[in-house]
Amino acid sequence: MNCPKCGGESRVSTSRPVIGLEGGRVRWRVCGSCGHRWYTWQAPEIALPIHAVTWSASDVLVDQQELRRAREAQP
Known about the structure:
Layout: E1 10-17, E2 25-31, E3 37-42, H1 57-73
Antiparallel strand pairs: 1-2, 2-3
């Protein structure tokens, strides 16, 4: 990942799981060029039901509603 300040290459100095968010991670990064420090975080992937991938517009609308309910149900 490139540094947001100077565009140089960065490295991960520390990586830890997010407490209470299974599959989430926080990574503290350091630029090798300018020494700028920042963090990035990774959200967990949400498993989609197999039937969510359809080609009709009415099915997509229903599946989007189901997806919204599934996201709200995630801890």
